[in-house]
Automatic annotation (TrEMBL):
Compositionally biased region (Low complexity): 22-35
Keywords, sorted A to Z: Nucleus
Gene3D superfamilies to which the protein is assigned, alphabetical: SRA-YDG
Protein name: YDG domain-containing protein
One term of GO molecular function: ubiquitin protein ligase activity
Protein's UniProt keywords contain Transcription regulation: no
UniProt feature, compositional bias: Basic and acidic residues: 1-15
Annotated localization: Nucleus
Originating species: Choiromyces venosus 120613-1
Length: 416
């Protein structure tokens, strides 16, 4: 009779939390009085750790990660910009035998035309142009360039030691290709050295995203980035073309990814882009350009009065306009680019084209209140002809460059 109350008390212990490998003193005392023929009754409950974010008693790292992946993600607040995809256009290329064959075919075509007597015809020069248009987009490396004979033929076009007259645009195109090859840059992609971040703006109220934005930036580890803070041609050739302004920044042609004026406080403006102007249009006469500076800025409180009479509230020239004024004083030779955004009849079909060096000869104030200046820029003599006439066989950008750029835009549009 005395054993029944003890067993009842032990059964009640199953609802209590008992540490592992321990028995309550009450259970231990009661079991000690059990006779030798009776088995001691003890109940142990599993150890339970303190509750955490993943539930009680879960110590397995794999289980914790699994539950974390299954946990619902926090919804993106409306209006927050989220990076969706990053695209790098430069890649590790593999050169095949077919690439060597393709480049060798171009070299043979050029060599065959140059051997014609007494001189090649217009149709022959078109064959050379076709090869020069294709060569920059061939998949090559240093070994392929030399083994194919393409380097040898391009050097002949660069030197121009022939008994006949060599078209100027052919010589320039050959020099553009050789410049990149000599620098060790064989990547054929138009956007080499550039990363593209595509971002999405989520819709409000659970609506799907409708607006996407693209942000281009230079690769941090790109080895062929050139300094742009150099006066003069800076090893550029008339007619060089870029699909985007950031490509001109990559090659050291223009020093800003968005602004149309680039320069420093020592020699003033170094390069400008003719894109039509914002408030006052640029007037483009090919050899003579009337280029407008940017809108003036508000004068600081302690701004000293300049020699010219300035009424209270008048703006002062912007930093970019000051670059142009300093370039006028220093007679700096400025690189001039024409953009496809310009309404000028000499603008390229796409992107930007380098059209040579210009010098500021005079300027005028169009709007004194807003400090808007217009500068007369005259093209320097003894330069290659501007390659902007669509009827000219050497017009830039050429048909292959435009086709390559349109294919890239189609690919990017498909990713949207």
């Amino acid at each position: 009779m005395s054993d029944r109350p003890r067993v009842g008390r032990l059964q009640d212990l199953k609802f209590k939390r008992i540490p592992r490998n321990e028995v309550s003193s009450e259970a231990a005392g009661s079991s000690s009085s059990v006779g030798p023929n009776r088995r001691r009754i003890s109940r142990r409950t599993p150890v339970e750790s303190d509750d955490n974010d993943f539930g009680p008693g879960l110590r397995d790292e794999a289980t914790r990660r699994l539950l974390k992946r299954r946990a619902p993600r926090n919804p993106v607040p409306p209006g927050e910009r989220v990076v969706e995809k990053q695209t790098r256009f430069s890649s590790n290329r593999v050169i095949s035998r077919n690439d060597l064959i393709n480049l060798s075919v171009h070299a043979e075509k050029i060599a065959k035309v140059l051997k014609k007597k007494p001189q090649p015809s217009a149709a022959d020069w078109q064959i050379v142009r076709g090869s020069l248009y294709q060569i920059p987009f061939e998949n090559v490396d240093q070994k392929t360039v030399h083994n194919s004979g393409a380097m040898r033929e391009l050097i002949k076009l660069e030197d121009g030691n022939f008994e006949f007259d060599l078209p100027e645009d052919i010589s320039l195109d050959a020099q553009m290709i050789l410049k990149r090859w000599r620098n060790g840059d064989y990547d054929p992609h138009l956007l080499r050295g550039i990363d593209l971040n595509q971002t999405v703006v989520p819709g409000r109220g659970g609506r799907p995203a409708k607006k996407r934005a693209r942000h281009y930036k230079l690769e941090e580890d790109y080895n062929w980035k050139r300094d742009d803070n150099v006066e003069g041609n800076h090893d550029l050739f008339v007619g060089e073309w870029w699909p985007l302004q950031i490509c001109a920044l990559r090659d050291g042609a223009h020093g800003d990814m968005e602004a149309g004026i680039s320069g420093n406080n020592i020699i003033g403006a170094i390069s400008v882009i003719v894109s039509g102007g914002a408030l006052y249009p640029d007037l483009d006469e090919l050899e003579r350009v009337l280029y407008c500076g940017t809108m003036g800025v508000e004068a600081p409180i302690n701004y000293a009065d300049d020699p010219e009479e300035r009424e209270h509230g008048d703006r002062i020239p912007s930093p970019n306009t000051k670059y142009l004024l300093l370039a006028f004083e220093k007679a700096t030779k400025i690189r001039l680019f024409r953009s496809s955004k310009s309404p000028s009849p000499y603008a390229p079909a796409e992107g930007l084209r380098y059209d040579g060096l210009y010098t500021i000869r005079a300027y005028e104030i169009l709007d004194k209140k807003n400090a808007v200046y217009r500068f007369e820029m005259i093209r320097e003599p003894n330069q290659a002809a501007i390659r902007g006439d669509p009827e000219d066989p050497g017009c830039k950008p050429n048909r292959v460059e435009l086709a390559q750029w349109h294919n890239i835009k189609k690919t990017l549009k498909g990713e949207r």
